[in-house]
């Protein structure tokens, strides 16, 4: 957890698709934290231009409203052809996908489409260099 704490400070409240936050960020490329007071979710992801290595990593962030309707926000991903391929990759139906909590829906979109398609280009990513 030392590496992840250099990026986010404290790991309290952060989640990812893996039980280990470092695995979620460094292998799957995404972690998030919900802010119940503001109704937002902050995502931190590895910047696609340069994923890094064991000594340094490039990250960026995005913030979305927790009540975002993914089918409206990323409507292009839910056209007939795109939705069929995307949902086939998840192994679940659209109805099942709709029941997944918002951050996990975004994680599935990122897994399939990538961070550039979901969050946009990373123009000012943060470089973190780790201590030996």
Describe this structure in words.
With 132 residues, this protein is of the alpha+beta class. It has one domain (2-129). 39% of the residues lie in helices and 23% in strands. The protein has seven helices and five strands; from the N terminus they run αβαβββαααααβ. The chain has helices spanning 2-8, 21-26, 70-73, 80-90, 94-99, 102-113, 115-119; strands at 14-16, 30-35, 40-46, 56-65, 126-129.
Concise summary:
This protein is α+β, with helices and mostly antiparallel strands and about 130 residues long. It has 7 helices and 5 strands; from the N terminus they run αβαβββαααααβ. Strands 1-2-3-4-5 form a 5-stranded antiparallel beta sheet.
Cα gyration radius (Å): 15 Å
Describe the strand arrangement of the main beta sheet, using strand numbers.
Answer: 1-2-3-4-5
Instruction: Give me the secondary-structure category.
Output: alpha+beta
Number of helical stretches of at least 4 residues? 7
Question: Taking all residues together, what is the mean pLDDT?
Answer: 88
> Number of folding domains?
1
């Amino acid at each position: 957890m030392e590496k992840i704490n250099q990026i986010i400070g404290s790991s309290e409240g952060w989640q990812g698709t893996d039980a280990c936050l470092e695995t979620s960020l460094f292998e799957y490329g995404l972690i998030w934290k919900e802010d119940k007071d503001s109704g937002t979710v902050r995502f931190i992801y590895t910047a696609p231009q340069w994923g890094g290595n064991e000594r340094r990593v490039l990250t960026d962030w995005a913030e979305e409203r927790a009540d975002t309707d993914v089918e409206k926000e990323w409507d292009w991903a839910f056209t007939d052809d795109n939705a069929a391929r995307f949902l086939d990759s998840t192994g679940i139906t659209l109805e099942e996908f709709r029941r997944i909590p918002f951050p996990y829906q975004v994680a599935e979109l990122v897994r399939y489409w990538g961070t550039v398609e979901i969050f946009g280009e990373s123009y000012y990513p943060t470089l973190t260099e780790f201590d030996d």
